[in-house]
Amino acid sequence: MDKTDLAPLIQAFDRLAGGDFHMGGEWRAVHEICQAHEGEWPFDWGHALCHRIEGDDWNADYWYRRAGKRRPAGTVAEEWSAMKAELSAHL
């Protein structure tokens, strides 16, 4: 994984967060970025969060497993905050 690939993911999630994580164009943009990097843990984690936002728990859990993560108990915003901190450390 090229570290520069993480910047667009973080930026796209920040835009999605700015819209209070609502489904729509920003969600689709994040989802497309994640799909383009399937098999890379940060993007699989992002994919999990996308499906959590969507309300598709089964699919979200699949992607959490692929990313080696567990679904957190907190809110989507809390998860994004923790995810952003971890991804930013890899830039």
| Poorly predicted ranges | none
Radius of gyration: 12 Å
User: Could you say which overall geometry the principal axes of the C-alpha atoms support?
Assistant: globular
Content of β-strand: under 5%
**Average pLDDT metric:** 95
Overall structural class, as computed from helix and strand content, comes to mainly alpha
Oligomeric state of this protein: single chain
Structurally, how many domains make up the residues? 1
Characterize the structure shown:
- With 91 residues, this protein is mostly helical.
- The chain has 5 helices and no strands.
- The protein has one domain (3-88).
- It has helices at residues 6-18, 25-36, 41-54, 57-67, 76-88.
- The longest helix is centred in the middle third of the chain and has 14 residues, at 41-54.
- The radius of gyration is 12 Å and the shape is globular.
